[in-house]
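From the methods appendix. Each design record in this collection lists the tokenized structure first, followed by the designed amino acid sequence. Records were kept in a plain field format so they could be parsed without special tools. The example shown here is representative of the layout used throughout.

RECORD:
FOLD TOKENS (168 positions):
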């Protein structure tokens, strides 16, 4: 049998234990793999995310121009949307059209890993970002000309965007 070409891989084969933190902060986020990039795609971002119990995918944020789509492969995460939390399960999809101002992050408040595909657009030069719970990050975005100053004003719900285990 012929061996598979390099652009066919299992997501766990590409997964790393690397995580990221925002500049000046020690919180780390889930692990996974940048599938699109690792498989040679340049116009679409496809990320395989694994959130351990207590992890969240990012700081709550919203995009002016970039679309984002989340597909839950496994687990029972919650999605934080504008200060409100909604339960998700395997097979659930979340579409985040650009310009809506819906700030979001995935939260894993369960006792099991969550696996998700997060897809979006790569290299949207006109994209700007707003972080409703992190004014210091917004200041950093202003310095980079990446702050979405005219974002839709949203009245946020009561949830602070942290997982239950990491609530500050």
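DESIGN:
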């Amino acid at each position: 049998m012929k061996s598979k070409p390099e652009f066919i891989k299992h997501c766990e084969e590409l997964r790393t234990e690397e995580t990221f933190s925002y500049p000046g902060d020690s919180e780390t986020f889930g692990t996974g793999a940048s599938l699109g990039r690792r498989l040679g795609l340049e116009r679409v971002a496809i990320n395989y995310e694994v959130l351990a119990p207590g992890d969240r995918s990012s700081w709550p944020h919203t995009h002016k121009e970039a679309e984002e789509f989340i597909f839950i492969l496994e687990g029972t995460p919650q999605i934080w949307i504008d200060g409100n939390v909604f339960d998700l399960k395997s097979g659930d999809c979340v579409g985040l059209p650009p310009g809506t101002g819906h700030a979001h992050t995935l939260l894993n408040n369960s006792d099991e890993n969550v696996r998700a595909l997060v897809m979006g657009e790569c290299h949207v030069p006109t994209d700007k970002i707003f972080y409703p719970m992190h004014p210091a990050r917004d200041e950093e975005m202003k310095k980079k000309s990446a702050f979405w100053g005219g974002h839709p004003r949203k009245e946020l719900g009561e949830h602070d965007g942290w997982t239950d285990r990491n609530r500050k």
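APPENDIX NOTE: Strands lie at 31-34, 44-51, 62-63, 68-74, 78-81, 84-87, 93-96, 104-107, 114-121, 129-130.
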